[in-house]
Design a protein that fits this description.
alpha+beta, 4 domains, three-stranded antiparallel beta sheet, about 45% helix, about 10% strand, globular, disordered C terminus, CHP02678, TIGR02678 family protein
């Protein structure tokens, strides 16, 4: 039965469509059916507010999410270097040319990837690092259900280039890549591809830019006095807040230099800050320390500029205060290692950026919105537990 209203299930469906790459009918039949029943209201909303296309296929459902600007955290986290992405594209070209359920050997895809690879230096499967790249690529293809293993283990290939694995292409192999307004060869840069996205949204581009930023990115920071996107958020905050709270599981909060969506309760299916990882303790304690000490003055955009060495000193001070409660790994790791992990985490959440010339750290306003501390009797109770 087709749902007429944007109910709680439609809210959950929208959140999961924004979170997932796609919903596969075989793997998540109940979620697939729930979205199908709310297809019309979902399509109407994502088209009107975000300009996104909701693709409903007999085998899968996919929300085509195109960001306003690409960010590092939007990449494939399992990949470690540009070579992985290049090999991934070559592997996609291979699978797209195979029929559904067609079987092939690992050596077959290795040969095609090697022929298609565009790098300045050719791939060499006797090179351990090249084999590790391929292992990462194949695992991502399996995770996305673009291909599946029939017999054999890909991890063995990392140690021995002669190892074989039997694979099979799936029905999803031809649907990973989205369609573009023009042939890809007509674009010279990634910026041109992103710019072409707005050709069909000229009348309401500003509103759709704002919705995309709010619903896809962790935060929308004010980038200057003449930031039109942030000005739109401030001018229409009440209307935006009402619409977002009516159609999503989030609440809009707008501050002087940042706008952010907040979840009222923790949901395991969503990617939220903070999560349950031990590094979050470090992040929240450092944020609280910076706020309470008030040593580093923020600029007019709410940003704090510190050197990497000064940030390491801050992490060291915080570990001296709260370290007893941290996980063993962060208690015993070097301050530099803890700092580097913290920097990577904050960059992924758009709470920090690195100044390209000086390598200085720019701590952004969102980092000050979430702080953490232990109870006042924490030190005493910890000492009692260790006696």
């Amino acid at each position: 039965m087709e749902a007429k209203q944007f109910d709680e299930k439609a809210e959950r469906a929208l959140a999961l469509l924004l979170e997932k790459f796609w919903v596969l009918r075989l793997e998540e039949p109940e979620l697939y059916q729930m979205i199908r029943e709310r297809e019309k209201v979902l399509k109407r909303y994502v088209d009107d507010k975000l300009g996104f296309e909701l693709i409903v296929h007999q085998h899968f459902i996919k929300l085509e999410k195109i960001p306003v600007e690409p960010k590092s955290w939007m990449g494939i986290h399992d990949f470690q270097e540009p070579r992985d992405y290049a090999m991934f594209c070559c592997a996609l070209a291979f699978t797209e040319n195979r029929s559904v359920e067609e079987q092939f050997l690992l050596s077959d895809i290795c040969e095609d990837i090697k022929d298609l690879y565009p790098g300045d230096f050719p791939l060499d499967w006797t090179n351990y690092h090249h084999r590790r790249s391929l292992v990462r690529v194949i695992k991502v293809l399996e995770k996305l259900s673009i291909l599946k293993s029939v017999e054999g283990e890909i991890d063995r290939f990392a140690m021995d280039s002669e190892q074989e694995v039997l694979y099979e292409t799936t029905v999803y192999a031809r649907y990973f890549m989205r369609s573009y307004p023009k042939d890809l060869f007509e674009y010279s840069t990634a910026a041109e591809i992103l710019a072409s996205e707005w050709e069909r949204h000229e009348a309401d581009e500003r509103r759709k830019r704002v919705y995309r930023k709010l619903l896809i990115s962790p935060v929308v920071h004010r980038e200057g006095d003449d930031d039109p996107d942030f000005a739109y958020i401030r001018n229409f905050r009440n209307r935006l807040r009402e619409d977002i709270e009516e159609h999503t599981q989030f609440r809009l909060e707008v501050f002087k230099n940042a706008a952010v969506l907040v979840a009222e309760e923790r949901k395991q299916e969503l990617t939220l800050f903070p999560d349950q990882k031990a590094l979050m303790d470090v992040a929240l304690h450092v944020a609280g320390y910076l706020r309470s000490q008030n040593i580093h003055q923020a600029d007019e955009l709410g940003k704090i500029h510190v050197s990497r060495i000064a940030f390491e000193d801050i992490v060291a001070d915080v570990r001296g205060i709260y370290g007893k409660g941290w996980s063993k790994y962060y208690r015993e790791s070097t301050i530099r290692a803890v700092t580097n992990e913290l920097i990577d985490l904050l960059r992924d959440w758009e709470m920090l950026e690195i100044e390209p010339v000086t390598n200085a750290l720019i701590i952004k306003p969102l980092f000050g919105r979430a702080i953490g501390h232990y109870p006042k009797n924490f030190s005493t109770s910890e000492d009692e537990r260790h006696e």
